[in-house]
Automatic annotation (TrEMBL):
Alphabetical list of Gene3D superfamilies matching this protein: DD-peptidase/beta-lactamase superfamily, Penicillin-binding protein 2a (Domain 2)
UniProt feature, compositional bias: Basic and acidic residues: 1-19
Transmembrane region(s): 34-54
PANTHER family linked: PENICILLIN-BINDING PROTEIN 4B (PTHR30627:SF24), PEPTIDOGLYCAN D,D-TRANSPEPTIDASE (PTHR30627)
Protein name per Swiss-Prot or TrEMBL: Penicillin-binding protein 2
Organism: Blautia argi
GO molecular function: penicillin binding; peptidoglycan L,D-transpeptidase activity
Penicillin binding protein A dimerisation domain residues: 81-160
Length: 496
């Protein structure tokens, strides 16, 4: 009997131990669940804090500048919008107040800076949009701010000093003349935008009165900033992409040789050289300098679509561009299995390829700057109404688009365009120049084939000062219009 009691007691003890074990296990499981839930809520809380910090610190200017931010109305009630100035200290935009307290935004240069400076009515555009936060923020001294609040006067917004050079802008604007198109001038060493012209243009001083006409005039698209938003076939300026692709594939251009007979036909599709010119036997430099279409067509076929596409995308085609104002993404499109006709057209900058003048200026700038593309910028610094610097832009490298060796090869090729090729109008000056002309065909509204006039280039080849892109819509060859425009701009920079 005692043995049975002992066994029964042991069994009960074992059952109790198993029960306690199950309870401890269940408790640990519950604790794990509580811990996971706690961590989850901690992560959510930290994420919310991070989100608030991001938008209130990192994205503060962008959020406050957004046209969808209703707080702008409150800012406009308290702040008199600051002025926009050129790099040489001239007023590009300011706000005038009459005796009745009515405010008018005034643009002293009218049409000349219309697209790049932009406007602040009917939405905001250009530098007016880019710098909206600074223009509507006052760093006026505290005593003056308090005094203005007491007197119910608006505090003056900060002033924005741009990188734009009034002289270069004026020369570029006048040189483009009556042609629609665009001109972009950059400092390749810093990324500063020195001039940006787009035509047709508009007068920002009469924008409200002209608005209905401007938005309905689809044939001219005068509100479109062609410098950054224009999308054009590049024509022969695309040959810098071909040249880089060939150099990367072969390691050198020294062994290239081609015999130009004036045209090339593959699969029933013919590409002629301009005017049917026969260039004969050419090395790479000669083919580039004389812009031989047949040589570069054959080059494109030999390279293949994938090599061209990779090089184009390395140069930011199909990619986001580092441009802080409104822009159109450039397009390089071959498809997975391009036929020879499309590849042939693409190799000479036709086909489906589209690019903006600003993008071509960026590529040119990188070539001039030993392969490094600097972050482009329009704002040099922000100042208080009393001239104290609030912040300034420090030049920075955006990306290395090519090696220094590759850039030097392209520099040499582009210098020969000026020395003995299609850009000889730029030779014979006290400064050196390099570049590439382009004649891009397109169908006009009447169905006829027309030609855009292109030029990309830089001045002072050994230590470049300016990088430039010019396009004149429907103007003919690059040599006839775009090169003379660039010539005037270079002369203005070096000779005043």
């Amino acid at each position: 009997m005692k043995d049975k009691d002992r066994k029964s007691t042991k069994q009960r003890q074992k059952e109790e131990q198993r029960t306690q074990k199950r309870k401890r296990k269940a408790k640990r499981a519950r604790n794990r669940e509580y811990t996971i839930i706690s961590y989850f809520f901690v992560v959510i809380f930290i994420s919310l804090i991070g989100y608030m910090v991001y938008f209130n610190v990192a994205k503060r200017e962008e959020v406050n500048s957004s046209p969808y931010n209703t707080r702008q109305n409150q800012m406009e009630d308290r702040i008199l919008r600051g002025g926009i100035y050129s790099a040489d200290g001239l007023v590009l935009a300011n706000t005038e107040t009459d005796e009745a307290g009515n405010e008018t935004r005034v643009y002293p240069y009218g049409n000349m800076f219309a697209h790049v400076v932009g406007y602040d009515s009917h939405g905001k555009n250009g530098i007016e949009a880019l710098a909206n936060f600074s223009l509507m923020t006052s760093h006026n001294n505290y005593i003056d701010q308090v005094q203005n609040e007491i007197l119910e006067k608006k505090n003056p917004g900060d002033n924005v000093i741009t990188t734009l050079n009034t002289r270069l802008q004026e020369v570029a604007y006048n040189a483009l003349g009556g042609y629609n198109g665009a001109v972009v001038v950059l400092n390749p060493k810093t990324g500063a935008v020195l001039a940006s012209v787009s035509k047709p243009d508009f007068n920002p001083n009469t924008l409200s009165a002209d608005w209905e006409y401007l938005v309905s005039d689809s044939s001219n698209s005068s509100l479109l900033n062609r410098a950054t938003q224009g999308a054009y076939p590049p024509g022969s300026v695309f040959k810098v992409v071909d040249a880089l692709a060939y150099l990367r594939q072969n390691g050198t251009i020294d062994n290239f040789s081609y015999n130009c007979s004036g045209s090339i036909t593959v699969d029933g599709h013919t590409i002629p050289c301009f005017g049917g010119e026969v260039h004969g036997t050419e090395d790479f430099t000669t083919a580039f300098a004389e812009s031989c279409n047949t040589a570069f067509t054959q080059m494109g076929l030999d390279l293949g679509g994938s090599n061209l596409q990779k090089t184009a995308e390395d140069l930011l085609f199909n990619k986001k561009l580092p441009i802080p104002i409104e822009y159109a993404k450039s397009k390089f499109e071959l498809g997975s299995t391009p036929g020879n006709p499309l590849l042939m057209q693409t190799s000479i900058g036709q086909g489906n390829t589209l690019v903006s003048p600003m993008h071509m200026a960026l590529i040119t700038s990188a070539i001039a700057n030993n392969g490094k593309l600097m972050q482009p910028y329009y704002i040099e610094r922000v100042e208080t109404v009393n001239g104290t610097t609030v912040k300034s832009t420090k030049p920075s490298v955006y990306k290395e688009l090519m090696t220094e060796s590759e850039a030097n090869t392209l520099k040499t090729l582009m210098a020969e365009v000026v020395n003995r090729g299609t850009g000889t109008q730029l030779s014979g000056e006290s400064y050196s120049a390099a570049g590439k002309t382009g004649s891009a065909e397109y169908y006009g509204s009447d169905g006829s084939i027309k030609t855009h006039s292109w030029f990309i280039g830089f001045s002072n080849v050994e230590n470049p000062d300016l990088a430039i892109a010019v396009i004149a819509e429907g103007a003919g060859t690059g040599s006839t219009v775009a090169v003379p425009v660039a010539h005037e701009i270079f002369n203005a920079f070096y000779y005043g």
